[in-house]
Amino acid sequence: MAHLNQTFVALLKEAQFTKELLGSGATQIRQANYASKGLYFQSFANLSTGLERIGKLCLILDHYIETQGSFPDFKYLKNEIGHNLNLLQEKAEKMALHRGWPNPFPSSAIHKAIVELLSEFAEGDRYSNFDLLVGANRQADPIASWYERVDLPLFESRVTAKKKHAIVGNAKLISSLIGPISSVLHISETGEEITDVENASRNTGVFEAVAPHRQLHVLQIIRAWVKLLGKLQHVAQALGRDDIPFFDELFAAFENDDAYMKTRKTWVNI
């Protein structure tokens, strides 16, 4: 009777955990808005942790291949990489170049901003609210940063002029119908109070227009890591040992093309 070895099981469990983190984060980033800010933090936490872990899986496999079956030590993973997603991606890009593979990572300004923001969140911005309360040196508000560096550029570049005009028109119409009899109090992503129906409706319209594009950009980053992990898996398995699971099967849903990704809102339990 065949038995799975401990290395195989550990890698499999790590990959399963990572897949669920990425799926949850990709789902939540489409749902988060000014009225449900907790979803931003959930998404940032899941995505930053998930990308860190899939990145470390790639580096572990690269080391395993280079050393013909040995894994790096704990010090390497903790001290040389830590939570820095920018550094992880840089190392992965160099790894791909070294192996003669094309760079799998999307390189637009918005993709780079997403990775930078998630890295900043992992390295300290996740405590921004506590930092404000206790008077610590506050780095940045991650939600405001996301809105300014991701959502607004997406709105300007991906949403049609017709759609933008419709958002403004709908906000004015709703305000004329229920504004005089309605009470509104929210806080926008950038911290301003929203106290009237027109502004609330306009912000909702912007969110609904941007949400599919922000999710797609996140999924494109995840897909790049998944493709790289799959390539490394095949090289590692060719060493002839029983250590390496079929990561490409586990993460298969994330390898779909953009056309499919645009049709799917939920990436949990895929």
Q: What's the quick description here?
A:
Helix content is 67%, strand content 1%. The chain has helices spanning 6-31, 38-66, 74-79, 85-98, 109-123, 128-134, 142-158, 161-178, 197-237, 247-250, 258-261; strands at 186-187, 193-194. A hairpin with a 5-residue loop joins β1 and β2 (193-194).
Structure description:
This protein has 270 residues and is mainly α. The protein has one domain (6-261). Helix content is 67%, strand content 1%. The chain has helices spanning 6-31, 38-66, 74-79, 85-98, 109-123, 128-134, 142-158, 161-178, 197-237, 247-250, 258-261, and strands at residues 186-187, 193-194. It has a two-stranded antiparallel sheet. The radius of gyration is 21 Å and the shape is elongated. It starts with 5 loop residues before the first helix and ends in a 9-residue tail after the last helix.
First-to-last CA distance: 30 Å
Shape: elongated
Question: Structural class from helices and strands?
Answer: mainly alpha
Tell me the fraction of residues in β-strands, as a range: under 5%
Q: Could you name the ranges where pLDDT drops below 50 across 5 or more consecutive residues?
A: none
* SS field, number of helical segments: 11
Based on CA atoms alone, the radius of gyration comes out at 21 Å
Helix content: 55-70%
Secondary-structure element series: HHHHHHHHEEHHH
Average predicted local confidence, pLDDT: 91
- Most strands sheet: 2 strands, antiparallel
Neighbour order of strands in the largest sheet: 1-2
Number of domains: 1
Comma- or semicolon-separated keywords:
270 residues; mainly alpha; two-stranded antiparallel ribbon; 67% helix; 1% strand
